[in-house]
Amino acid sequence: VFIAQSRASGSHRDVEDEELTRIFVMIPKSYTEEDLREKFKMYGDIEYCSIIKNKTTGESKGLGYVRYLKPSQAARAIEECDRSFRAILAEPKNKSSESFEHDYYVSNTRQEPRGNTLPFCMQPEFCSFEKNDSRIQEPVSKRLSVVSRLPFIQEQLFALFDLVPGLEYCDIQRDPYTNSGYAVIQYSTAASAIYAKYKLHGFEYPPGNRLTVIFLEDGSDSSE
C-alpha cells in the first residue's frame, strides 16, 4: 500500500499524502520536541515534530507526532523504531485528533509491559470509552473474525494485525471448497481488539480486496 500510493508523494501534498507521512508515537513525558526529532531523524527527512500537551497545565501527555517528507520514510520509522514508541500512522488533521489519541492511548496502556517498554502513568481522561460511543454498541471481545474473498497468507496477515499492540495469535482457517480467506485473531485486551476492528474493518488488503472484521464471542464479560 505504501509503495503503490507513494508514487504521488513528490510535490503533491494533500490529505492522502499526509495519511502516509505523519506518525503518532508514545514517548516519555520528559521529552522535548528536539528529543523527539533526535530519536526519529535517522529514518528520514523530518518536516516537523510536535508534542501533545494538556491544554490546562501545559504538561506533555506522553504522545507526539512526527511528519516526514516521504511515505517511505514514515514506513521505515514505524518498522524500525523501538517497540516502546508504539509507532502507528496518524489520522489526518481534518479528522478528530482527540478521539484518535484516546483510542490509541487506551489500546496501548491496558496491557502487560513487554520488553523494554517505557513506564507511563494512566491519565483519567484516557481511562474509558464514552458510554454512547457508537463504535462499541455491539458486544465486544478480545477475539476477532476476519473474512476475505481472497485467501490469506499467514505471515502477511499476522504482520498487518500485529501493528496493533497486544496480538496473541493469528489462526488462518482454510476451506478446501472455496478460495475465500477466514482467520481468527486474538488480542491480550478488548481495547486492542476494538482498535484493530475500528482501523482494519473495510481495509483493502491487498488493494481492491476489502476485509470484514467482526467480534467473536470469547466467553469474557463484554461490559468490562
UniProtKB/TrEMBL annotation:
PROSITE patterns: RRM (PS50102). InterPro entries: Nucleotide-bd_a/b_plait_sf, RBD_domain_sf, RBM45_RRM2, RBM45_RRM3, RRM_dom, SLIRP/GR-RBP-like. Residues 21-95 form the RRM domain. Pfam families: RRM_1. SUPFAM superfamilies: RNA-binding domain, RBD. GO terms for molecular function: RNA binding. The keyword RNA-binding applies. Keywords: RNA-binding. The keyword Disulfide bond does not apply. PANTHER family: HETEROGENEOUS NUCLEAR RIBONUCLEOPROTEIN 87F-RELATED. This is RBM45 protein. It comes from Pachyramphus minor.
